[in-house]
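Lecture notes, unit on protein representations.

Consider one protein chain, 482 amino acids long.
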Amino acid sequence: MSRWDYDVAVIGGGVVGCAAARELSRYELSVCLLEKTEDVCSGTSKANSAIVHAGFDAVPGTRKAEFNVKGNEMMGDLAKDLDIPFKRNGSLVLCFAEEDRDGLQMLYDRGIANGVKDLKILEKNQVLELEPHVSDQVVAALYAPTGGIVCPFELTIAMAENACENGVEFKRNTGVRSIEKLEDGYRLVTESGELTAHYVVNAAGVYSDEIHNMVSEKKLHNTPRKGDYCLLDQAAGGYVSHTIFQLPGKYGKGILVSPTIHGNLLLGPTAVDVEDKENTATTAKELSDVISKSAVSVKGIPYNQVITSFSGVRAHEDGDDFVIGEAEDAEGFFDAAGIESPGLTSAPAIGVYLAEQIAAKASAERKKNFISTRKGIPRLNHMSFEERAELIRKRPEYGTIVCRCEGISEGEIMDAVHRPVGAVSMDGVKRRTRQGMGRCQGGFCTPKAMEIIARELGCAMEDICKNQPGSELLVKNGGMEA
């Protein structure tokens, strides 16, 4: 019997942590994943641009460049294996002045050095032929056909479900308070008790510096960098077909305009350094910046079709690069720290790298019975009439539509609760099914969805939270619900 509770403890249930957990589950290792909130995909991974970057932006030789290109190349096969939507819609980086062509050429040269395929510099007429709504001020653009779009929720959750099916134990509402170095392993003190692990993976997002600094004298420092977004209704989703960037500046790739994988139109993000790692409040100024700066790239955007705005915080490490691999002075402690853009794209490749490093160190054999595929929740909106009828015949609950905006049925909400690493909150159901993501933003379907979740979890409706405990939607006041 092992002296450790687990061979590997992964800290953080975002896209990188879930990628690492899935790849570790390929080996004969006991693995747990610790997530401080009630669900996976609750931090940076839930509020980002949903872009699969081609890989032309990162400086050659950096970890960002290495893992971006590798992750991009993996995404197509991964999406097929995990039954999630993914599209290589291509990206355009717009140049608006002749004197800025050198910047466009620099991006092209970087992309070639990084191994990005099929890059081209297009002239104005070629750009407008591809995207008629692009600003008439454009003079040229970098075209990267390998760029893509994906759903960050579905990618993260799919990897978590697949990891769980392959034996990874998920511990939610289990934030790590402290880590103690042992002779050849670690003791982790969490909100739910203590556990020991031979190896640790630090994938704690904006908190990855704090986790790293618990065990290493070589300190890291993350600056929380907040970005606001506007999301437009699906009626505006076809306004552009490519992901439209502006030439990047000091704080990132600027305001983008992009279709989403589910047919909406996304604008953003801003880039504002903040002190509070939990500061995800949108501001009028930042949203105004999103509107004004997106108009520089694309003319006539139908802003009257904005249905929601949101904000996310990413981790900008002082070294301006990903920190990946075993800490120099903490054997068995593996970092995936300072993960900002292109973190979503890079996550699958980071997961492979960390798992291979740990498996080699542990002399772990590959499993012969690893399950590489996963089937997603049936989507009524993606089915033919005949397929719908057959599903409803077998499972009548799929015939009751709860969310009219997105066409989400009672059966889909039930499945979201009962799947591996199932939803236990309103946001958990929302990310798995898109219930409440449509034009009315849950204004009509929330009460019915709450009823279904409470019934399936066997709890009272006033126990249902929006996300973490403490965010209950109903309260009792003197014995009466309010």
